[in-house]
Input
Amino acid sequence: MVNPRLASRYAKSLVDLAAEKGQLEAVRADMQVLQQIIRGNRDVANLLKSPIIKPDKKQQILTAIFENRISTISNAFIKLLVIKGRESNLPEITTAFEKQYNQLKNISNVKITTAVPIDAAVLGAIRQKVEAGTDKKIELEIAVEPDLIGGFVLETEDRLYDASVLRDLKDIKKQFTQNIYTPNIR
Amino acid sequence: MAALTDVKNQVGNLVIEVAEKVLRKELSDKAAQEQYIKQQAESIKLN
Output
């Protein structure tokens, strides 16, 4: 069950603890590792969600998987989650952690989608434009979507800037399908 | 009137289909594509 409020609470406690111990970067790396493992491996995701496997068994498995890969804080955190029966929320917690880390470090994630892969030079130009608009550090994520035909789409945290040909075509199409001289209600 | 609207809509759809094909062809060239992106990036306004 997805529970965003719970996820953000647990994530906040982890952020606070990590910041207090001065290990924010390490814990962040751990969270990224966790996210990768959970996303890349269905068995792990299923294990976390499974109501049949006993908590102590889960703890054993999770320790076996993660012990050497992540720091003590993160290990203790996972143990806490298992004790509290919240291990099924771990994926959301890692996402929430990332979000809060970005907020703390004043980083804004920007996703840029283009029709074809583009050069670093063009990317740099767009990056400059985006950076000029905010006082935050920009972290670019690149995606390719041939359906766009041309141009690009920028997605910042809560904003979407659509400069694609697909969008233009859609806009025109909309204008054509709107029949201003026929009544909508008969 | 209804027939006229119908014709208008059909013509509109045709036009867009053709336009899409032309644009796809125009922008299939990588240089043209990047040129277009640059041009769009110039006009970007994020607030």
The interface with chain B takes residues 114-116, 118-119, 122, 125-126, 129-130, 133-134, 149-152, 154, 156, 159, 161, 163, 165, 169, 172-173, 176-177, 179, 181-182 of chain A (CB under 8 Å). Chain A is about 60% helix and 15% strand. The mean pLDDT of chain A is 86. Chain A has two domains: 4-103, 107-177.
